[in-house]
Amino acid sequence: MMWDPLFEPVDRCTATLVDYRRSFCVWSLVSRGTPERPGLALGLEARPGAECRGIALRLKLESAETELEATWRRELYTAIYQPKWLDVATDAGAVAAIAFAVDPGHPQHAAGLGPRETAAIISAAVGENGSCREYLANTVRELSALGCAELHIEALENLVREQDLSPGS
User: What's the chain's average pLDDT?
Assistant: First the structure.
């Protein structure tokens, strides 16, 4: 959503969501992988004490219904993501925002993967929308541009690079 929100927002601002963490915790069988070689996509996992920085996008009132329908079709087609109204902190104060949180009981939830295993999956998987490697690079680039870099996501990108350079890969 950060680099391809499907709509032109009226406004966008940096926002912080508490008690959630961004992680590669969603099995992708189409967009960034296949049933034979699943990829991983990002999701917001509930995690007490965590903080996730990103962007909040404000919709145009006159086209909000259409824009939300398009977003729902793209993001909610398998029900791994659960839309929730959550409070996010912005420079202008707290606002309510729709966030797509991962359902930990859904079969697409990729729980318990370690960093090296996650990097190996990302390094190898390609789906209809491109490779997991490109998806990770886009994420790192966009978070950096927003001033919201996350060390664990950057470390994952470094692991993918290391894996690509190691003999036998």
Answer: 89
